[in-house]
């Protein structure tokens, strides 16, 4: 068994509260499994993080979500310190968080994705967004933060352009009708396909993290051919990005013309949530892997890139 484990949680992204919940659940499971685990609440002070990492833990469990914790930044700090950590390394984390860069890799690997273009913030207000509806999202955020569907010309654009806290790049993506699917990958194995049915609207941040915000069907009640394709694409995406540990691939499945329908990869999440409502623990339980076993496996798989 690995020695002491430091669980990084919090951070200063828009997903801070989710990270705190994930970290608390991981801490409980590690303690139950017999690990010497301690929490580190991460703030926007690198010197504080370095202080809290003394004495050096044997492993860091990275329960941070969003920018700075999921995009290669904290991974780079841990690489410099030589502390093994869970989940993906610097490059894979950065690539997965940058949606346009990740889509180029997915396309090269033969994985279908919705068409998109990137607009600067000052272009967005006056640009022709093309056939509606379209999906508007930040180019480098997770957990559906900032995602909205533009259904009518000018819909929400005045507010978006003036109050867009997600950087200077805005992704405008083809809207794919149909169903929401996700596939969790553990190592080199897809754990199953889950269909997500939001109770109101689409699968946004609120639906993901509010009790009763969505219903999960595992295994997803879709055509066998589409099921196998989703599993294959998820593992292929995990590999092409260079992910390790656990990842989650999100898809849209257009079955409006009948099944098997068209499958489109939206993104890969390299730091999936570990809350009571999260999809990875649910998928692991479906194949007989309990939460304690899951987090223990993640700790034992921790490493550095170098």
Fold and architecture overview:
This protein has three domains: 5-86, Rossmann fold; 96-112 and 177-290, 2-Layer Sandwich (D-amino Acid Aminotransferase, Chain A, domain 1); 116-174, Dna Ligase, domain 1 (2-Layer Sandwich), CATH 3.30.1490.20. 33% of the residues lie in helices and 24% in strands. By secondary structure, it is an alpha+beta fold. The strands form three sheets. A five-stranded antiparallel sheet has the order 10-9-8-11-12. The chain has eleven helices and twelve strands. Strand 1 (5-10), helix 1 and strand 2 form a beta-alpha-beta unit. Helix 1 (16-32) packs across helix 11 (291-300).
Q: Features of this protein?
A:
306 residues; alpha+beta; Rossmann fold; D-amino Acid Aminotransferase, Chain A, domain 1; Dna Ligase, domain 1; 3 domains; 5-stranded antiparallel sheet; 4-stranded antiparallel sheet; 12 strands
